[in-house]
Amino acid sequence: MAARLKTDEEAWLGQPPSPFVLPMLLGAALLSAALVLYAAGNGVLAAGFAASVIAIAGLMRWYRHLYAPALSDREATPDWTVARAAADASNIAIAVTDRSGRLVCASDLFGEWFPGYPTPPGVSNDAGLTESLSQAARAAWRDGDGKLEGLAMGALRLDVDIARTGRTEDYLLWRFTPVRQPSALDDVHRFLTGEAGRQLGEAGIMAAMIGGEGRIRAANGAFLLRAAGRIDANITGRDFAAHMRVDDKGRLFLAREENGGLPLRLLQVPLRRASQPGATQATVQDGPMLLLLIDEPTGGGGTSALSYIETLLSLLPFGLAMADRDGRILFVNKAFARAAGLKSGDKPSYPGDLVAREDQAAVADAVRRFAVGPQMSGDIVVRMRDQPDEPTALSLAGVRGLGEAAVLLSLKDNSEESKLKRQVAQATKMQAIGQLAGGVAHDFNNILTAIIGHCDLMLMRHVPGDSDYDDIQQVKSNSNRAAGLTRQLLAFSRQQTLRPQILQLPDIVSDVSNLLKRLLGENVRLEVSHGRNLGAVRADPGQLEQVIVNLAVNARDAMPEGGTLNIQTYAVPAAKAREMRQQILPISDYTALRVSDTGLGIPPDILAKIFEPFFTTKELGKGTGLGLSTVYGIVKQSGGYIFAESELGRGASFVIYLPVYAGADAQQETPVREPVKRAETWGSGTILLVEDEDMVRAVAERALTRQGYTVLTANDGEQGLEVLAAHDGIDLLISDVVMPNMDGPAMVARARVSHPHLPVLFMSGYAEEQLRKSIDIANVAFLPKPFSVNQLAQAARDTMAMQPAAE
């Protein structure tokens, strides 16, 4: 029921007044007075009694008017104890906040996951997650619901659902649902209940998975039929020991088969290893286990049982092997051989032959220890012979009654996991190098701006033929080459300024083909092919041309005797991307560009380093090592992915995947790039120049003054505001973005209060894309460093022309 039941008092107080109340009250008073007068014969007493009746009724009416609002308010207040009890009954964390952002109710599970009961969205110390939760909350207030997926709280991952609720919709209901991660237990569950479990049953092997508490979680049909009598029986959650019995000789039987059953052999495979070195044996054995039961042969020998076990182990998807009491390996299944790095047909003699030399003694000692004494299991950390840098957990379990077999060995195939770890480490390293490269490029750009600017100013005082003219021109040329290197660093660190357009990759390849033919020379043949139904991509056409040129030049250098360079474009739909099973490539539609050659190929040890900046295999002085790092940065900044494939002696291939653009303007034609027209750079007006670097401020001031402008200067944002307040008629504000004390965007935000139509030109050694959030201000232009005198003058003139008419 939506409304709770009222008490008798509340029901009486909540009734509306009846129109017959007053006549009935007067009638009751007159009747009472008449009875008293008849009985006592006293008129005064009768009148007093009637007045008392009326007074009592009046007091009751006054009490009703006095306490009805309070009871009404109490009825309108939600009963949060009931809400909290309902929340605790669920398996998710629940919280309720009001319009003011105050936490009014939360479940106990919410307090366990978020100690101290923090008020959403402040459940995390991560500012980014807090902002994401705040945005989802605003969406819930606006649209009725909001959602955030993948909230990481340590090892716990949560999905957050937010809904507007309440009678007047003045509360937010926060639901934190754990995201269940797949585990080995899920694989075993599917194995037992699927086709593989049926095949085990046909081979006479019963299998069940139990939890650490000893209750059954899954079983194959053979176990269900013999333990419960029906192949479709539901025994999940029951005690495994209740289905078994042990006779006076210590033999194991199924409880249901009583006297007619055969003794069973039980094999235990631990599914959860000790989480840390030094864990007790009880910790290892308390985890989930896979139990395998096989009928004991009537002859009682262990050899036949061992053949059953070997058949079973060959079917299981886990890396398992068996060794005897002396440590000799008796059997290895395919999963174990794959995890140990064994080649087809190889069978080691001892487990120590699989591990590094330093770990051989520890493995041999562990095998001897588990081969004698009571049955037990445990883990040791070893390094495999073929992968000495990757620690691996080797599980051992003692087995009895299987003839020569005494120890069961389990090894996890972590090749994919190791590959993913290396990829993550490589991505982290590349990101750190990119941040360093971006910072170096920013500082270097300030120096180059001053050098190039002073060269331009000196060239204005000289004419061709002067003794110093050629020297100055050479300094400027070398400075421009250095500026090109900084642009490559910014490209690698994904901090360069891009001008993305909607385009088709075949058009870009066609535009650059003529240039490639001249670059490749006569010994290299260029082959170009395009697929059908290619989706449009959104990227900077000039930067994509740079990517193709860099890859082509590298391919040419890899073919000193000549060869073939093949450029292909083709569509990669989401279904094909899913079949590729790339850990890094998300499932989506892509347009791919493949650049392959028939050259020397790239050695495997170098293939992992080719995208790092300044890494080159060319001779000293013949390469900067920034070609492929620039390609990597441009592709990543464009939202794409790049992969390298190579075999020694068979060439190399670079494949670029760019996501298909699905915006509303995806079908628009690529705009034609028109030649830049040289504009007049002279002008007039007053310019306020704010720059913290003295050398940059000095050259910019001189350059603008020579172009006819009146220039006022300041060292930082605070000084800039003071100069702006002291001078009227400033026509343009030119400012650096990153400055001490007060940066450029903060200064402009305050300056626009008193000068709302003041044009602003930002200049910075960082990329515009990196600063876009901070400089997202109306009527603002951007000039990247380094720049020449003419570029500064042209940018100043264009920005002043942007000034809107004052209202």
TrEMBL record:
This is histidine kinase. Residues 439-662 form the Histidine kinase domain. The modification 4-aspartylphosphate is found at residue 736. The keyword Transmembrane helix applies. It catalyses: ATP + protein L-histidine = ADP + protein N-phospho-L-histidine. SMART domains: HATPase_c, HisKA, REC. Residues 686-800 form the Response regulatory domain.
